[in-house]
């Protein structure tokens, strides 16, 4: 069973993810990404998809041209879990790597 983060754990985790916003209504985290064009955005999504498959933890997301919106929450836990934090960190590493 995957455990939902406590309020204190959530606060600590979000301090380490400054680019992500907490969606209180869904107990989720969200981030928007902008790329030079559709090809870059789609390539990013493909890399995230590989991470998601490996982790067996899949984002809710949308793409319009060069923008990608990602929402992470753990449905089985009823909200934010360590799996979401780990996935957000892995996604951040993709965009922070030259």
From TrEMBL:
It catalyses: (4aS,6R)-4a-hydroxy-L-erythro-5,6,7,8-tetrahydrobiopterin = (6R)-L-erythro-6,7-dihydrobiopterin + H2O. GO terms for molecular function: 4-alpha-hydroxytetrahydrobiopterin dehydratase activity. Keywords: Lyase. InterPro entries: PCD_sf, Pterin_deHydtase. One of its GO terms (biological process) is tetrahydrobiopterin biosynthetic process. It is an enzyme of class 4 (lyase). Its EC number is 4.2.1.96. It comes from the Bacteria. CDD domains: PCD_DCoH_subfamily_b. Belongs to the pterin-4-alpha-carbinolamine dehydratase family. NCBIfam families: PRK00823.1-2, PRK00823.1-3, PRK00823.1-5. This is Putative pterin-4-alpha-carbinolamine dehydratase. It comes from Sphingomonas baiyangensis.
